[in-house]
Amino acid sequence: MADSAVVTIDRHIMEEERKYPEATGALSNILTDLALAAKLIQREVAKAGLVDILGKVGRENVQGEQVEKLDEFAQEVIYKSMDHSGTLCCMVSEEEEGLIPIPEDFPVGDYVLVFDPLDGSSNIDVNVSIGTIFSIYRKISSGERGTLQDCLQPGRMMVAGGYVLYGSSTMLVYSSGTGVHGFTLDPSIGEFLLSHKNIRLPNPPQRYYSVNEAYFQKWALGQQRMVACLKGMGDKEMQPFRSRYIGSLVADFHRTLLKGGIFMYPRDDNSPEGKLRLLYEAAPIALVCEQAGGRASDGERDILDIIPTELHQRTPLFLGTREFVDMAEEFLQQDPDLPC
Ligand code: AHG
Ligand code: MN
Ligand code: MN
């Protein structure tokens, strides 16, 4: 008998909470509020082109990047969905330079929310999949309100992390440390329904590699040799790979999670620490990847072991099928003159 149970994300979150008798329900509230924010953002994404939500707002963010209207909208929706719940002591967003405090007249809680409100902004106006990325930590400072110390925790301390993918369907994928679960939005009832229970990277994996090869000339020799080998141009016999690159981390990772392969955003001469940000892009995606049986590395060590020193610090990122990430580390650490 097929399991006909319709499991909403709220039901799943409550069932997860029941596994922890000491749980206060605060983490469940945060995840439920994030699911609501995702629905509100999806509604605008779905109408993009029909309503005035495309294009740029005419200012740069802390990253020096042009802010898209949807970046700003998503930022506002998440902030307003989370600021009054009494579950958070502060927030961190790609779109805000500093730590975001909870308004004085709202209660504070014991968790920190770190997020990228809209990932893949360059793809918004061309109707290509984009996303939202989030990670949640427990407050570790002694004060009532959050501090930088609460925000600069290594990914190993994350209590939950995940992403929303606004694609051909809208999915919310997250892990709270007991595996990875995917929920697909049913717009006819406005509910995220459990569609991908306990996601695991496939074995054997599809042999996809995903990297922006426009930067080839600026890469380290080891990185160049690796990609040359993946394309069958090296002298080492290697089963051929295929290339896929969407340019939205959430979409490139989601494909890697479901099909296998490796996603890479390496350092280069112009970006010595790579482009992707540790706190709200690499770390939450790394948690999901590891919980699904994969690996996430900066080329030398696990992403989740990196102790952040700045809110917007960048990191090189190699993630996906464990054996492929191990291979990437070997190429990067090997003597570049070795034949591949
Ligand atoms: P964001 O839109 O939040 O700034 O993130 C964009 C990131 C990431 O989604 C993607 O993997 C990467 O930028 C693509 O960068 P390139 O255009 O340099 O390939
Ligand atoms: Mn991003
Ligand atoms: Mn973004």
| Count of distinct strands | 15
CA-based gyration radius:
20 Å
The CATH topology label of the largest domain is Fructose-1,6-Bisphosphatase, Chain A, domain 1
Share of β-strand residues: 15-25%
The CATH class name of the largest domain reads Alpha Beta
Q: Helix share of residues?
A: 25-40%
Main beta sheet, described? Answer: 8 strands, mixed
Oligomerization category of the chains in this entry? single chain
Bound molecules: 2,5-anhydro-1,6-di-O-phosphono-D-glucitol, manganese (II) ion
Summarize the structure in words:
The protein folds into 2 domains: 9-196, Fructose-1,6-Bisphosphatase, subunit A, domain 1 (Fructose-1,6-Bisphosphatase, Chain A, domain 1, 2-Layer Sandwich); 208-333, D-Maltodextrin-Binding Protein, domain 2, CATH 3.40.190.80. Helix content is 29%, strand content 23%. The chain contains 8 helices and 15 strands. It is globular and about 65 Å long. The relative contact order is 0.13. The mean pLDDT is 93. The structure holds 2,5-anhydro-1,6-di-O-phosphono-D-glucitol and manganese (II) ion (2 copies). One manganese (II) ion is lined by residues 71, 94, 116, 118-119, 121.
